[in-house]
Amino acid sequence: MALSFVADSMLGRLARWLRALGYDTLYDASWEDEALVRIAHQEGRLLLTRDGALAQRAGAQAILIESEVLVEQLAQLKATVNVRAVAPFSRCLCCNAVVRPISPWAVRERVPAYVYATQSTFFICPNCGRIYWPGTHWERMRAHISAWEAEGVLAQSAEDPPGGGGTEP
Question: Domain limits of the chain?
């Protein structure tokens, strides 16, 4: 069974990077502790939290994330549950849905003219409608992921992943 996660409100950046790696990662900063524990148990997800009391309540379904630093958070998950790039860029960074290919002509009016003229591959989030393409943000993230997998190092510039490398709906 593939790993899936639910992250508490303190771990939004980590949730986005887990999605970038291809992990099904639920995140909503407004969810209360009880909802997080319920989701973890009902859906068989690991609850990622920086709150020791919440981790204790969730029991074996929780991982207490020890650091506030993204690089160290990812290193902890790599060491404890073997997090790695399983399906990079297969999920929407904003809402977690699996993105799907879409033809360039279908997004012509929804992406900048330069992007349409220079890109031939596009993906759409069927949930929130964001459009993604393998542009410069994508390439920078891919480089960060490759370095992290090879050396266990994620560049400090990766602290705040881009808003999706695509367009808003």
Answer: 4-81, 100-167
Measuring CA to CA, which residue among 85, 97, 83, 158 is closest to residue 132?
A: 97
Q: In whole angstroms, what is the distance from residue 26 CA to residue 39 CA?
A: 9
- The number of helix segments (H) and strand segments (E) in the chain equals 7, 8
pLDDT tens digit at each of 169 positions of the chain: 689 999 999 999 999 999 999 999 999 999 999 999 999 999 999 999 999 999 999 999 999 999 999 989 999 999 999 999 999 999 999 999 999 999 999 999 999 999 999 999 999 999 999 999 998 888 888 888 888 777 765 554 454 444 445 554 4
Residues written for the chain: 169
Q: Tell me how far apart the alpha carbons of residues 84 and 74 are, in angstroms, rounded to a whole number.
A: 9
